Amino acid sequence: MEKEAMRRYAALALDAALAIAEGDRLRIAGAPSNRELMRVIAALAYERGAAFVKLEYFDGGLDRIRADRSRDGFLDVAQTFQERMSATYAEERWSTLYLEGEDEPDALEGADEGRVGRMLKADMKASESLRVAQMSSRVAWCVLPAATEAWARKVLGPAASADELWEILVPILGLDAPDPASALRAAMGDIAARSRALNALSLRELRFTGPGTDLRVSLAPESRWIGGTERTPEGRAFMPNIPTQECFATPDFRGTQGRAAFTKPVRVLGSLVEGGFLRFEGGLVVEAEARTGAQALRRLVDTDSGARRLGEVALVDSSNPIGRSGYIFDSALLDENAACHIALGASYDGAFEGASSMSKAEKERRGFNHALVHVDFMIGSEEVDVLGVDASGRGIPLLKKGSFAAF
What we know:
Elements: H1 3-17, E1 25-30, H2 35-47, E2 52-57, H3 60-69, H4 80-91, E3 95-100, H5 113-126, H6 128-135, E4 141-145, H7 149-156, H8 162-173, H9 180-200, E5 203-210, E6 213-218, E7 230-231, E8 237-238, E9 247-249, E10 257-261, E11 266-268, E12 271-273, E13 277-281, E14 284-289, H10 294-301, E15 310-315, H11 321-325, H12 332-335, E16 341-345, H13 360-365, E17 374-378, E18 385-390, E19 395-400, E20 403-404
Parallel strand pairs: 1-2, 1-3, 3-4
Antiparallel strand pairs: 5-6, 5-18, 6-10, 7-8, 9-15, 10-13, 11-12, 13-14, 15-16, 16-17, 18-19, 19-20
């Protein structure tokens, strides 16, 4: 990216997504190759009055070294310093900007999946304080893409460059608009309107049908549809994902029943899972298989009891700009916003009415799921229909062949 384009992107992230203000603390995490972009964002944050900005860098190669060489007894140890940092970020309300895009996206491919799973589980335990704060919207956060050379080669082929991937991302992100922030806010308004329309239907169940898929997802009376913009308890608006196309809800995990086939690959515990499916009985995954990456998928659902239960269901019109691009981005951020999806693991407080004032036990009694993980699986496509069922048992077509129906 050119320097001016970086500043436009930084302004979109800080002003529209995080609303950085005087005295805020900001943490920026990304790949080393995006250091210049991260510094541009940091400089603009200080111009906006941020008190502190901290940069953190992903190092997939170091993760691989640890997975291969760490003494076995240390793989399961949650690092105390990570636990304390996570708790501090949550307590001090640090806003976090995650730049999606790695320099070594395949670093964990071929590693011992058992050791990788144990290592990542320990890391997830260590960062639980911040993750819970973010999923309950107590702190502002945003994930947005940042192209790298390695990521470009995965998406576009072995001779591709990061600049070529940026060219694809710019219109998807709306950076080609005269005023990207205003365009983004307008798009978020459209998603909010659709969420309101879904909430007005008082749905109690969703039924997904398509090749390899016949899935029923229950919605509790407390389940509510949200999307685009969320708010902290103090009323600060922020956007967790840029770009985003989803309206999502927290299901009643106890009522999930049937089979869901994956329509896009997904990376699980460092391994690419393709041609997979999940089968649920009584709210629990009882079968998890895949053409490739099956072992990683099974290890994921064994992470803890909550990893076998549903924490999110999202409706996405496949005809949106990400879906129309035709690319598989090998990125949860982008691929999940190209198709309807479900997530195994932790639920979001904001998508469950009254969750913020309930105890953990009370939430679980109402079908709200708790887990160390939260992994999205795309199950929508132009061959998948979604039917909503309201409290009276009336069926309402929501999506036909991947696109929203009138409702």
